Amino acid sequence: MEKEVLKKPPTKVTTDSKRFLEEDIRSRAYALYEERGREDGHDIEDWLRAETELIEASAKAAAKAAA
Questions:
Q1: Distance between CA 29 and CA 43 in Å, rounded?
Q2: Helix 15-35 × helix 43-66 angle, to 10°
Q3: Does residue 3 belong to any structural domain of this protein?
Q4: Are 47 and 29 in contact (CB under 8 A)?
Q5: How far, in Å, CA of 19 to CA of 16, rounded?
Q6: Domain annotation covers residue 5
Q7: Alpha carbon of residue 64 to chain centroid
Q8: How confident is the model at residue 18 (pLDDT cuts 50, 70, 90)?
Q9: Which residue range is the domain that position 48 belongs to?
Q10: Is residue 1 assigned to a domain?
Q11: Cβ atoms within 10 Å, residue 50
C-alpha cells in the first residue's frame, strides 16, 4: 500500500502582509531614487527593482529557514 504524501497548502498572503510588503517596496524604491541623486523618470524601474530585491531576499530567507 502506498503511503499518502501530505502536502502543505499554499501559503496565503494576508491583506496585512501585502500592505507591509508594499510599504517595504515603496521605502526601497525611494532609497533607490535618492541613491540616483533624486533623478526623476525611473519610478517604475525603481519599484520593480525594489520588488525583485525584496522578494528574492524573502525567498532566500525562507529557503534558509527550511534547511
A1: 8
A2: 120
A3: no
A4: yes
A5: 5
A6: no
A7: 16
A8: confident
A9: 15-66
A10: no
A11: 20
Helices (H) and strands (E) in the chain, counts: 2, 0
Is 9 contained in some domain? no
Buried/exposed 2-29: b ≥16 CB within 10 Å, e otherwise:
eeeeeeeeeeeeeeeeeeeeeebbeebb
pLDDT tops 90 at residue 28:
yes
Percent of the chain's residues with pLDDT above 90: 61
The pLDDT, as a whole number, for residue 67 is 82
Give dist(CA 27, CA 48) in Å, integer: 12
Q: Grid coordinates representing 42?
A: 525611473
Q: Which residues contact 42 (CB under 8 A, 6 or more apart)?
A: 32, 33, 36
**pLDDT of amino acid 56:** 94
Domain count, the chain: 1
Mean pLDDT of 11-19: 73
